[in-house]
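User: Let's play a game. I give you a shape written as tokens, and you guess the letters that built it. Ready? Here's round one.
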């Protein structure tokens, strides 16, 4: 498995992840197809400016054209000041092989090694067994259940947090 930065050519992977009702079932439903070129362009720009880490998951470096999913680490304002957050997705045909967990661990190892991002938070949907399992088994601490807003929708989620420099398993 390899993580690489998002590129302008990743529109198709974004559409398959973000505009698909099954992929987005826990994230408030599919997003409109029309906004995806803009979203990829904005994400490529934010990576180039070193604001966010937005990685595509490539299962086999010998077949770099195959993208299985994405893992992203970014910072945003919260009621308690700036907050680092990580999120992830793996396409159905690549699920169940440990790819999401490996991708999340790999990005948190990079955060630890570069001493960046501080405490990292995650907000998987309450009913998302796999994503809550990833948090639990990588050493995240359960904080609380809470409502979160994703793409202007309010969702019921679990709040987890990890300090990658001390707690990553
Ligand atoms: C959630 C998702 C990322 C999981 O991807 P994946 O590559 O299949 O996950 P993994 O294979 O790495 O499995 C992660 C862990 O969850 C466990 N798991 C898988 N499905 C599970 C389920 N339904 N209930 C509980 N645990 C589950 C796995 O056994 C594994 O734990 P282990 O390593 O301790 O055995 C993927 O299904 C997805 O992208 N779904 C749609 C989008 C989404 O919901 N994203 C997350 C938003 S927070």
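Assistant: Ready! My guess for every position:
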């Amino acid at each position: 498995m390899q993580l690489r930065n998002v590129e302008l050519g990743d529109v198709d992977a974004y559409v398959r992840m973000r505009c698909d009702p099954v992929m987005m079932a826990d994230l408030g439903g599919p997003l409109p197809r029309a906004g995806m070129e803009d979203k990829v362009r904005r994400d490529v720009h934010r990576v180039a400016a070193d604001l966010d880490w937005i990685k595509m998951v490539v299962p086999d470096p010998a077949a770099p054209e195959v993208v299985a999913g994405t893992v992203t680490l970014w910072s945003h304002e919260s009621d308690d000041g700036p907050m680092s957050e990580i999120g992830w997705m793996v396409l159905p045909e690549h699920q169940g092989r440990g790819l999401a967990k490996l991708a999340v661990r790999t990005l948190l190892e990079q955060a630890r090694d570069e001493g960046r991002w501080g405490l990292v938070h995650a907000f998987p949907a309450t009913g998302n067994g796999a994503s809550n399992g990833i948090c639990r088994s990588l050493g995240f601490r359960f904080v609380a259940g809470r409502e979160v807003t994703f793409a202007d929708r309010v969702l019921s989620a679990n709040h987890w947090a990890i300090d990658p420099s001390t707690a990553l398993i």
